[in-house]
Design brief:
Two copies of one chain form a homodimer. Helix content of chain A is about 20%, strand content about 25%. By secondary structure, chain A is of the alpha/beta class.
């Protein structure tokens, strides 16, 4: 069994040092409580509601920033432990809304968010590569960021590439929903898990930032599509013990195979030159 | 506004005459209550739990079956009215799990279910064509059947082809779910609606058939992804007044465009020669 923990943090925009400290504490706590895979929110180190590109640039870092090495050291306390966290990435002259996969051996992969949401495109350049799917002692972990999860092509691709778990740092701004309904993005995660028989861990954020409230939707969904745990309101975390290898069995019944029953020979207009 | 009604029927396997009568009554009632678009379940005229192909063949019909003409006549009572219903289709030597689109002018299109579920493949041949998207006075109606809805490629294709409403005859066998949770397929419909900003009407069935119970999940979801009405348990219907043209606005915010933000240049492995 793999203990998957998604942590709901309240980063503060522009406070790199404070955010790193909060993330470090969260990581240490999660590992102490037995987490094998820890997911932190999108842009956990930088905050989200930037007003200018300069603001974003001031808190953007490269994957060789010392705090990643510190996190790798912490991860060394638990064999096979993996961290997936969002951060503002500085790369040559561009900024990316990125997620790093970190193990005891350091940063193993950086994914740059492809589907930028709303004003993110003012500050960040979109990524140009598919989500990484990393083979870990716990199974294969696919990584994407927030709005990426709402593009069924992207989640399907990553599941087809063999991901057992999608680790998804997010910042979901609070939107309207009818009384008694779940956060819409959580519903999308549940449906995505079920359609692809893949587990999903999403770390959302809390804390009002420059007038923006957040959905506080942090949770863990099993490959069967049901929510195993959620963080609720405020800072906190969601944890679930999952056998990630179960995600590989796409047989819903003896005759049904969620992947084998696809009809790629009939699928059209999904791929292309793009805009 | 378009009144969309999905009817939850309890067909009986093998009882073609009785099933047609029940469907006729349901259609008449829905039209009298102001429905503009009526959706009936998958295999509404035949029942579902066949034991042999001969059983299915005995209740399979061609689109020139007289009851379609009778339904067209009924539809003439309400200008612009459209019926989408599932039926077992006899075509040359093969049987298909099909859906017919009927207007006052007769059968306008027949869609043959592509993604057959479980033992359906014993009785039916899979379709080989994309869902039809029909231009009607109420907007563009896309048609698929049951398990098709769980293939995100298929729903995305149909939404990209311009569907404002997906009309989905279904028979969802009752599966396990945690206390308090919605039917999993309804969640998939809600997520699909939201990811594509398309309305979805799904007509499920009730009535135990040869030991199989059904989810009784009939409902209408708006393009915003929220459930507008559901039929509840037993026979009945769900109705909602929707402006189907609203589905065409894919702008979630001023800068977000659910279709324009897609990255088809990066989507890979979704289309292909197939098996």
């Amino acid at each position: 069994m793999t203990r998957v923990t998604a942590v709901q943090l309240a980063p503060r925009v522009g406070d790199l040092v404070g955010n790193v400290q909060r993330a470090t504490t969260a990581l240490r706590d999660a590992l102490e409580q037995g987490a094998d895979v820890v997911v932190l929110p999108e842009l956990a180190t930088s905050g989200y509601v930037f007003e200018t590109e300069d603001e974003a640039r001031a808190v953007a870092v490269r994957p060789d920033a010392p705090f990643f090495a510190e996190w790798a050291r912490l991860l060394g306390s638990r064999p096979g432990a993996v961290l997936v966290t969002g951060f503002a990435e500085l790369a040559d002259e561009a900024l990316y809304n990125s997620a790093a996969v970190v193990t005891a051996d350091g940063v193993q992969a950086v994914y740059r968010k492809v589907h930028l949401w709303d004003r993110e495109r003012v500050f960040f350049r979109p990524g140009n590569a598919a989500p990484p799917v990393l083979d870990t002692p716990h199974g294969r972990i696919g990584v994407m960021v927030c709005f990426d999860l709402e593009f069924p092509e992207w989640t399907r691709m990553t599941a087809l590439a063999g991901a057992d778990l999608l680790a998804v740092p997010t910042n979901w701004p609070l939107g309207p929903r009818p009384e008694g309904e779940r956060v819409a993005e959580v519903q999308i995660a549940m449906a995505t898990a079920r359609m692809n028989h893949v587990a999903i861990a999403f770390a959302d954020r809390s804390g009002r930032e420059r007038g923006v409230d957040w959905s506080e939707g942090t949770g863990i969904v099993g490959a069967d599509g049901w929510l195993r745990d959620s963080a609720g309101s405020g800072t906190g975390s969601a944890s679930a013990d999952l056998d990630l290898l179960e995600s590989r069995d796409k047989g819903q019944t003896e005759l049904v195979d969620l992947f084998g029953d696809r009809r790629p020979d009939l699928y059209r207009g999904l791929e292309g030159a793009g805009s």
